[in-house]
Amino acid sequence: MLSFSYTKSRSSRFLPFHFPPFLPSFFHSVSLPLPLNPPKSSHLRLLHLPLRIRSIDAAQPYDYESQLKSRHLKSQSLKIAIIGFGNFGQFLAKTLSRQGHTLLTYSRTNYSDVAKKLGVTFYSNPHDLCESHPEVLILCTSILSTEKVLKSFPFQRLKRSTLFVDVLSVKEFAKNILLKYLPAEFDILCTHPMFGPESGKTSWLGLPFVYDKVRIGNEEERMNRYAAGSQFVTHTMGRVLEKFGLESSPINTKGYETLLDLVENTAGDSFELYYGLFMYNQNAMEQLERLDMAFEAIKRNCLGSCIKFIGGSCLGLQMD
């Protein structure tokens, strides 16, 4: 917060007050006449009257910077279910919830009060939990009850490719039993956190964590994603720059030369080749949508910041 003030003086002249130069330029056109010696009326009897600027960066409806930041944080969060809400399950829920993830919990014992205190959701029925479609499911059951839980678990209500994570101490047993009962569409990650509620109550940083990627995705699907993320995006950007009309100039930088090479190497190929990359890769449409969202986000961020700092008069542009 910035604060400006005047104090008592022998002179009764008015001194023009100007905002300091580090404030945005549109403040500089404003000057306030501040009396060096204010009249001693009932309304102006203060000998020290501070002028306070409460905020010079208040969030506005067009503040796309904060909106994009919030959207980014949400995109990084996961919906995580914990099966078995005993001491270790509560320990995991507390930490993961603090990291911004959405936590769903289930246990045969009623821990609804504990869940409420931790700010997580508790289900007394596994079917209801699965209907919420968690992306990650952590098994925190005891070793003796794990097989019984898996036998009766409603896998059919979960999304395919749900990641199952176990935290049992005996890895060989956990690996075999998960491979036995879980459908092939589910991913499996066997883990052994070498810490617990006491040793990890303040932070997990630097604590040992053992894991085994038993079954993570489909190799063919993973290769398609790699192709969509590299070859297809590369060809798409090359063709976009060709349509943009990118041309060489006498002052090309190294980065600009790289873009020119990209256009030459991609736009020179036939459209049938590019169309084949699009048509026969199921991840290509997702990549196009992400590119479109990225361009739109950059555009809105620039225009929003322009309006934010120059009061809506930047180049005559207006945001809806």
TrEMBL record:
Alphabetical list of InterPro entries matching this protein: Arogenate_DH_2 (IPR012070), NAD(P)-bd_dom_sf (IPR036291), PDH_N (IPR046826), Prephen_DH (IPR003099), TYRAAT1/2 (IPR045011), TYRAAT2_C (IPR059064)
Top-level taxon in the UniProt lineage: Eukaryota
SUPFAM superfamilies (alphabetical): NAD(P)-binding Rossmann-fold domains
Pfam families per UniProt: PDH_N, TYRAAT1_C
GO biological process, one term: tyrosine biosynthetic process
UniProt KW Oxidoreductase keyword: yes
Domain Prephenate/arogenate dehydrogenase: start-end pairs: 78-320
UniProt key word Oxidoreductase: yes
Keywords: Oxidoreductase
Protein's UniProt name: Prephenate/arogenate dehydrogenase domain-containing protein
Bilayer-crossing regions: none
A GO term, aspect molecular function: prephenate dehydrogenase (NAD+) activity
